Amino acid sequence: MAAVVSLSGCAVHARYYDTAHGDYHVWGPSEREPYARWEAEQHRHHVEYKKLNKEDRQAYWNWRHEHP
């Protein structure tokens, strides 16, 4: 049980500024499911968010604002 607790504290969180909407987004475990839905709806192969180009990141956040 101690390993589970210690691993949960190691989740990667990053903060991204959304220039189109003028706000910040936190990328963490709670963003995995919406991102997977976006990839499926856009008929995209899975690519890690951090490897997306600037335009694709903005496309994701645009979609995310419409799908809270």
Keywords:
two-stranded antiparallel sheet; alpha+beta; globular; 68 residues; disordered N terminus
Compact overview of the structure:
The protein has 68 residues and is of the alpha+beta class. The protein has helices spanning 2-8, 32-41, 54-66; strands at 14-18, 23-27. A two-stranded antiparallel ribbon has the order 1-2.
Largest sheet features: 2 strands, antiparallel
Strand order of the largest sheet: 1-2
What gyration radius follows from the Cα positions, in whole Å?
14 Å
Q: What is the H-and-E element order?
A: HEEHH
Helix/strand class: alpha+beta
The tally of helices reads 3
The helix content is 40-55%
Uncertain segments are: 1-8
What would you note in describing this structure?
It is a single chain. With 68 residues, this protein is α+β, with helices and mostly antiparallel strands. The chain has a domain at 29-68. Helix content is 44%, strand content 15%. The protein has helices spanning 2-8, 32-41, 54-66, and strands spanning 14-18, 23-27. The chain has a two-stranded antiparallel ribbon with strand order 1-2. The termini are far apart. 3% of the residues are buried. Mean pLDDT is 85; it is low at 1-8.
Question: How is the secondary structure organized here?
Answer:
Blueprint: H1 2-8, E1 14-18, E2 23-27, H2 32-41, H3 54-66
Antiparallel strand pairs: 1-2
